[in-house]
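hey all, quick one before standup. I had two proteins in the batch that finished overnight and I want to keep them in one place so we stop losing track of which output belongs to which input. First protein below, input sequence then structure tokens straight from the run.
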Amino acid sequence: MDYYKMSGIRKATYVGLVVFVLVNISSYINDEKHYAKATLNDAIVQNILANKINQLQQKQIKFCRSNIATLTALLSYACTQAQTNTTSRAACISCFTAATANVLSPTLLSSLLPCATLYFNTGNYAACVTTLQSAVTTNVQVNSTTGCPTGYCTFVQCLRKVQANALVDMCYMNSITGNNLNEAAGRTNHYLLTTSCILAMTRCNPTNPISGAAQNINTTPVYNSLQVSRNGDLRIITVPRSCCGTASGYCLADTTLTQSGWGTIIC
């Protein structure tokens, strides 16, 4: 088609058509650019979010994994309390040590269950076996807060509560001798001795009787006190000696925070 031989009306129509096509092509190209840019931005945001979530999960898992030694100490101490002879205690400790070597994952609880069933199936620890069994039979997942398998902390708390109760009972019974509980003076002294025993054992005994952790009073001098939680659990509040002291009080008999020992446990 010869543009120069067209009439004026046809020329105008032709030019309008060309402009329309060019405008739509330009609009299409711009739309594609915006779509590509938006898609790229979405991909970047999604990648950043995925990396942040992965970092958080790794931090949580690392936190839980870093407490493997704490878990092993707790289980080993429970073995010494649940078993009555050297051979079975050693076998119990060996079983749990092998089980906890399976780094924290949803399968950890399953690996602990055979050991718990075999060595904790009687006495006060039996309740913890039931707790663990329940956790294993549910849909075990990694807890988003702790990075540990669901039910892991419930099992740990159960073991600690059994051992805290055993400590209270032991101190109570050992403090009865020489105290007449039918008299106010005997009951008072019995209470003071029981409390002293609990505090000294958890502060100065080579092995903490609740957590099973090794402790050295000469390396890390501490003060501690008793607390009972709202659900009835015994808690030992521990602070380093360097943190605090007594304020000036009215007629204080002792201006220090020194605490008594218990028997051969000298603090």
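OK second protein, same deal, sequence then tokens:
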Amino acid sequence: MYLRPLTNGVRELGIGCFERPSTRYKKGLRASMRFSALLAIITTFSVVLAGPADVETRETTAPIFYPVKIEDGRTSAVEGSPNGLYMYHNETHAAYYGTNPNSVGSRSLSRRAASVSCDVTCNGQQGSASDIQTAESGLEGFFGSGLCWSKQVYYLYNSVYAFGCDYGHGQCETASDYEQEVACVDNTCGNTQGGWNGVPSSKVTYGREFGSFGC
């Protein structure tokens, strides 16, 4: 039997089998494996840290999807739907975020909307001033420093819908701008009548109705 050294650290036996790798070879292999593992950790950590500069800092609670009825352009909640904020999901369901404004992500809008102009329509419906105020205050709370939404957003309180209708490609609203929308309707329709304010330049309408609302 004879041994013939090879360059890879393994010595070949003359009988055609191989001897175990040398101690130096095994140490080198372990060092290489540790380096590869460390490199993988660094790469993964770098990917986690990387991201867009405008990532939201407040997480959004996963919504609950409630069935809705949309017929002839009017939306209404099904019986048993709780009070709180809803956003359009599809033609059969709305995403429900509850009554806590912290349940939905928001952002501070760097570019504020121009002063709201009043183009109000009153619908003749009469309801509770207290319920209207509660619904509108609920929606205002979610708008906060800025909430972006599309198609429909509304706050349901008893039979009152404080709503927004998007006719463009999405909207972003703040509480202070929404206050102006509410003031437009109150000044024209009073604080017990249903109505809405349209902003054609922004392709959006904000208002309140009872039992259902139209977009």
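Flagging for whoever picks this up: The chain has two domains: 3-49, 64-214. Residues 125 and 194 are 5 Å apart (CA to CA).
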